[in-house]
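RECORD TYPE: inverse folding
INPUT: structure tokens
STRUCTURE:
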């Protein structure tokens, strides 16, 4: 199911993101090129998941409870809503950390870190949906599985959760600050980011981490502005509405059918 989802979204990225010309050349060349990329992506996800899931289920099952429920179709499970809501809070916090880091770098005259992986999302709603939503969704799945795999290996080797956290933070902080022009300035931000990442995986599991990476990437795919009259203001509104809608759905789902008012949670 996960591989089929990755395959389908990869093909949808090509369908919505490409500038199609109904010619024989596109059908024979670009279609099969996109088909091959989709099959490779789906196959890699399948291999990684099949290699990882049995061992995680045996030794660390609490981290994939809500993930498994989503794959089984139980998307309205209250725990799923809770984990997605937590992921959105984490994603907003990580985006603010990234924004503050760039602000500090700008103030000292250093080059800010580029948080936009592609400018295609600025070209229209169709490209935003393809590169800002669908491709970011696939990237979040792949990145979270790789991070989860590494954390699981560290946990098996060290057998200590605090040591796993420490090694993960040190490894990824070093990878991100080495070679930068201001490594000492970036180190606290990287420690905070990767420390929160490993805590989220260890405490809430794979679904929360995947959703947090996706929402954070979605927020970074367009310029966020309060000037909605700007030419890119519509993109800001579209992304913010999407995130708020996801948060509203997650909050409603996390209630598990209970009423918030009138004899509901607040009265209790």
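DESIGNED SEQUENCE:
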């Amino acid at each position: 199911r996960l591989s089929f989802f990755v395959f389908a979204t990869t093909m949808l990225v090509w369908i919505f993101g490409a500038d199609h010309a109904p010619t024989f050349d596109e059908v024979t060349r670009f279609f099969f090129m996109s088909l091959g990329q989709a099959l490779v992506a789906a196959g890699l996800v399948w291999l990684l998941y099949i290699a990882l899931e049995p061992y995680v289920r045996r030794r660390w099952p609490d981290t994939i409870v809500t993930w498994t429920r989503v794959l089984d179709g139980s998307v309205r499970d209250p725990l799923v809503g809770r984990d997605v809501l937590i992921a959105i809070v984490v994603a907003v916090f990580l985006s603010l950390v990234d924004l503050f880091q760039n602000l500090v770098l700008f103030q000292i005259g250093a080059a800010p870190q580029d948080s936009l992986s592609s400018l295609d999302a600025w070209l229209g709603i169709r490209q935003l949906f393809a590169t800002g939503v669908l491709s970011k969704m696939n990237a979040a799945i792949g990145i979270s599985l790789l991070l989860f795999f590494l954390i699981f290996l560290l946990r098996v080797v060290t057998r200590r959760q605090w040591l796993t956290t420490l090694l993960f933070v040190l490894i990824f902080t070093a990878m991100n600050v080495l070679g930068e022009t201001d490594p000492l300035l970036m180190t606290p931000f990287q420690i905070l980011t990767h420390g929160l990442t490993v805590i989220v995986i260890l405490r809430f599991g794979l679904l929360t981490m995947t959703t947090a990476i996706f929402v954070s990437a979605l927020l970074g795919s367009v310029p966020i502005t309060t000037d909605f009259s700007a030419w890119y203001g519509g993109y800001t509104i579209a992304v913010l509405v999407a995130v708020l809608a996801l948060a509203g759905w997650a909050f409603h789902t996390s209630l598990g059918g209970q009423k918030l008012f009138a004899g509901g949670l607040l009265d209790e």
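NOTES: The chain has a mean pLDDT of 85.
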